[in-house]
Amino acid sequence: MGQSVVIVESPAKAKTINKYLGKDYTVLASYGHVRDLPPKEGSVLPDEDFSMSWAVDSKSKSRLNDIAKAVKTADRLILATDPDREGEAISWHVLQVLSEKNLLKDKDVQRVVFNAITKQSVLDAMAHPREIDGDLVDAYLARRALDYLVGFSLSPVLWRKLPGARSAGRVQSVALRLICDREAEIEAFKPQEYWSITAMLKNGAGAAFEARIAEFDGQKLQRLDITTQEQAETIKALLEAADLSVSRVESKPTKRNPYAPFTTSTLQQDASRRLGFSASRTMQVAQKLYEGIDIGGETVGLITYMRTDGVQIAPEAVPQVRSQIEAQFGARYVPEKPRHYSTKAKNAQEAHEAIRPTDVSRTPKDMKSYLSEEQMKLYELVWRRTVASQMASAEIERTSVDITAASGGKKAVLRATGSVVRFDGFLAAYETQPSGEDEEDAKRLPALAEGEAVLREAIEAKQHFTEPPPRYSEASLIRKMEELGIGRPSTYTSVLSTLQNRDYVTLEKRRFTPASKGRVVTSFLESFFKRYVEYDFTADLEEKLDKISAGELAWKDLLHDFWKQFSASIEDIKDLRVSQVLDMLNEELAYLAFPPKEDGSNPRACPKCGEGQLSLKVGRFGAFIGCSNYPECNFTRQLGAGEDADAEDSGPKVLGRDPQTDEEITVRTGRFGPYVQRGEGKEAVRGSIPKGWNPAEIDYERAMQLLSLPQEVGKHPETGKMISAGIGRYGPFVLHEGVYANLDSPEEVFTVGLNRAVDLIAEKAAKGGRRGAAKSLKDLGEHPELGGMIAVKDGRYGPYVNHGKVNATLPKDKDPQSVTLEEAVALIAAKAGAKGKAKTRKKATARAGKG
Question: Read out DSSP for 282-309?
């Protein structure tokens, strides 16, 4: 047969598959995408029929060279990347590069896909090759072009009109709008008073149960219908005076069916609720389970491919699941026919099978000794959900009892409900409550008969107030995006990460809160690009991309239609001045920026000078409120600081004195946010208050903790060097000999133990976290005018370009591998110019002082 070269995406997968295929195959990894659109103007050219220019970074170039070298002497090329749109695109890119190198003449080229990394799945796939799916590739090209055109058209508009704003993405902007809209709902929410009335009762045998008010004076009562204490007391008085008797008993058998097996989004949601995993952590652990675990000397994939919208299990896997159910739970738990699931999601571009164990006979108990704690938890979740999906329905008896009270011509009806699980069915494998107890099916009622008198133990009337809707968690935001048809399984985690990396949102206590910068960007986009952040518009685009995947729509037709209107919107705003944009934002965000004052005075009057008007301003670190009399008046406050922000910002809040130095400890708010301070003047020590912490709630003890940072955790058991913990520019961290490792939350800085710190540092060091001399990422060549080498380097605070003593930071969204010599020269010139101006100013100041 000759030699075959097989291309997969990851080295772990390559190693495993090479063992399955043997010596006639060379399996190489592409390490994901080998080419991408360079993040610069002109990568997609709408005027040239949307021609796309692809770039290969230095690492991918090396890997492609290895692939090319192997293909030269091989008879066959097998493209075996992942079974979704992205995998199809990677295979297409590899094929294009090799074709351009003229390496495929007289070579047999095949595309194979396998949904699981097991020997049988891989061998079956090799026996059934196909060609690259052109429709899937077209859908990828359309999506990539759309994302590029939106990002690289909108972002420059944002930079010019909203200084400090980062960039806007097609899907990210809509996800950000969801978070901002929810925050606006919370702020506009007005609590509504309501009362509940509960009766604690007993039957004749003395068995206690609880009932709630259902009707009064012929009127049915819903949860919010009793709105005053007077109403509640009237009903309570009747229930306390009247005799109580059972007027209706109704028992009804019902069935509860199991959930479908996991898709990407449902796995992320359940792992968040049950295990506390973030979406990105879930996918990292799932990737490892998919790519393979060493089990007794053999590496095998434990779950099927984890990026999918599909809810079906492969037909050949269903009998094994049914056999496992019978063996582990009994014949009664196996339904007469296999269960079939369907999804509303349009997923032509994704793998079709749900996430399941590759071999369900590998129970979680059997796998425990081979897996880490996180891997074990996620594998068990997938295993239980898969097994439950093919089990018999739970049989539940639901009972509803009415208790009537009548007195003085008035009548009230109390209702008690309960459920009894007569047969647990799928609940034996997968409880529906994360706690392990299904609360709906746990409440039972004692035996009660119509006409039976019941005894009154107590009647309780309680006041309540309605709660605002909760902020989105990762799980609920993913569920909402899926509901609206926004994004796809492979995009959810990157969308959420991007919003956090751009400082548009913060994630505190597992809930998303929009930062001021995010709210300003959303308001700007809704005002000037409303159509492109509408939920229906974005979902409609996803449907059209699905049609391209299905061969029902030409990809360039979609791009032509989109670009015609989108480019016109960009042109409409180009001539707007920043002052016009800020005037609009002052109106749009007035409820947040200038909340009404209790005394009815002008909310925009400057509280410091009394003459200037407050206005929204946008700086490098985001939006803030400032006085129009600047620089004469330097009053500032944060956007959304609240009704009493003026009083807080008019001066520091004194918390107490340092017991060692006797200096005042204060809470203050500056242009860049709230902070705590010890002392005054140049010698003062300051500590930023982390995002998500309410400055008004900072007490003396917490302020002293912040001022004590960084603090010592303990000595590293191997090096004997001290490990410290602190809060820096990129959040909370632990540090040891130049290696920084992130902590999950600011609170952990004060509680992190030595074992946890050592583990985090070891993980980071293993990923190349140690910082010595700045690592050179790319040499660009000599400076065309000044001579001397220019290089792209990786520093502690991110990548930068270097020429001699001049270091110029790259924009945060700039791929360091895509920087050109011309771009680097411009950045260096701008940085050198800024330094020159600073020196000139210093000299002029010195001369003025001498004169």
Answer: HHHHHHHHHH-EEETTEEE--B--S-EE
What percent of the chain has pLDDT above 90?
Answer: 36
Here the tokens at position 336 are: 């007469």
**Average pLDDT of the segment spanning 740-753:** 86
Residues 215 and 251 in one domain: yes
- Stretch 330-359: mean pLDDT, rounded? 79
Q: Which residue from 433, 434, 257, 274 is spatially nearest to 341, judged by alpha carbons?
A: 257
- CA-based end-to-end distance of the chain: 90
Between CA 384 and CA 365 the distance in angstroms is 12
Tokens 């969801």 locate to 178
Helices 535-549 and 555-574 pack at an angle, to 10 degrees, of: 150
CA distance 220 to 218: 7
More confident residue, 756 or 593: 756
Residue 512 binned pLDDT confidence (cut-offs 50, 70, 90): very high
Distances (CA, A) of 486 to 136, 172, 271, 548: 18, 10, 21, 16
406 and 335, same structural domain? Answer: no
Residues 103-147: pLDDT tens digits?
Answer: 988 889 999 998 888 888 899 999 999 999 999 999 999 999 998
Domain-ending residue, one of 527, 558, 576:
576
Q: What is the rounded distance in angstroms from the CA atom of residue 586 to the CA atom of residue 593?
A: 7
3-class secondary structure per residue, 606-655: CCCCCCCEEEEEEECCEEEEEECCCCCCCCEEECCCCCCHHHHHCCCEEE
- 71 DSSP assignment: H
Tokens of 725: 């913990």
Alpha-carbon distances of 429 from 363, 381, 394, 511, rounded to whole Å: 12, 10, 11, 30
Give me the DSSP letters along 385-398. Answer: HHHHHTSPPEEEEE
With beta carbons less than 8 A apart as the criterion, state whether 164 and 623 touch: yes
Asked whether residue 326 carries a pLDDT value surpassing 90, the answer given is yes
- CATH no. for residue 9? 3.40.50.140
Q: Where are the alpha helices (DSSP H) in 36-103?
A: 58-72, 85-100
Phi, psi of 385 (to 5 degrees): -65, -40
421 with 454: CB under 8 angstroms? no
Q: Output b/e per residue, 350-381; b: 16+ Cβ within 10 A.
A: bbbbbbbbbbbebbbeebeebbeebbbbbbbb
Domain count, the chain: 6
The values of phi and psi at residue 34, to 5°, are -100, -20
Three-class SS of 796-827: CCEEEEEECCEEEECCCCCCHHHCCHHHHHHH
The domain of 790 spans 776-850
Q: What percent of the chain has pLDDT over 70?
A: 90
Residue 676: pLDDT over 50: yes
Domain membership flag for residue 152: no
Cα–Cα separations (whole angstroms), residue 350 to 140, 549, 582:
11, 9, 43
Task: Give the H or E element holding residue 461.
Answer: strand 455-465
* 639 is a domain residue: no
Tokens of 798: 């991110």
In a domain, 617, yes or no: no
Q: Distance of alpha carbon 808 from its chain centroid, rounded? A: 31
pLDDT at 77: 94
Q: Which two tokens stand for residue 250?
A: 């109704």
* HSE-up of residue 222 (Cα within 13 Å, Cβ side): 2
Specify the pTM. Answer: 0.70
Establish if 839 belongs to a structural domain. yes
**pLDDT bracket for residue 440 (50, 70, 90):** very low
Contact 793, 776 (CB under 8 A): yes
* Domain shared by 245 and 278, yes or no: no
Q: Say if residue 842's pLDDT is above 70.
A: no
Q: Which of 132, 148, 171 is the last residue of a domain?
A: 132
- Which positions are catalytic? 305
Mark whether 243 and 172 lie in a shared domain.
Answer: no
pLDDT exceeds 60 at position 846: no
